[in-house]
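Summarise what follows for lecture notes:
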Amino acid sequence: MAEESHKQDEAGQDDAVEEIIEPGSGSAEANNETVNNDIDSLQDALDEATAQASENWDKFMRSQAEMDNILKRTKRDLENAHKFALEKFVNELLSVRDSLEMGLDHAEGEDVDPVKLKEGSELTLRMLSQVMEKFNVIQVDPRGETFNPELHEAMAMVPSNEVAPNNILDVIQKGYLLNDRLIRPARVVVAKALDE
């Protein structure tokens, strides 16, 4: 039975092949027209996909060029920021330097008035302090405060009854903070109890 069904299938296939192959038959022309329509629609789809791919490639290349430009610009800006980060600070310090130079010129003259020289030095120091404050450089002068190892560096411990033990007796060198970050600790002499 399976053999008979197999023979019928083969016969049916032969008929279908004959329909496609036979020239002049109506179904072969219809098949050719269908195939041509399929080829045309596939060609249209290919053209559309090619145009879309070309457009996307163009967008990608433009985006890539824009990213390269942004990267170069950012790198250049960063280099300039590093090179000229202190420009404002230096401009402010120039007036302090000018004042120091004028004081030295005056000190070398014949009529040197020590009082005026001292006043000039105090003015220059005040100018420097103002510049430092403008840029958030804060002086650490802990005289009389409790010793804090995060802000102070103990240079010596001296027995004293003037201040409580572990308090700062004297400041050898003032410290400085920049935007609340320690730049230089204050070097101090710390008091200790007399009996130690």
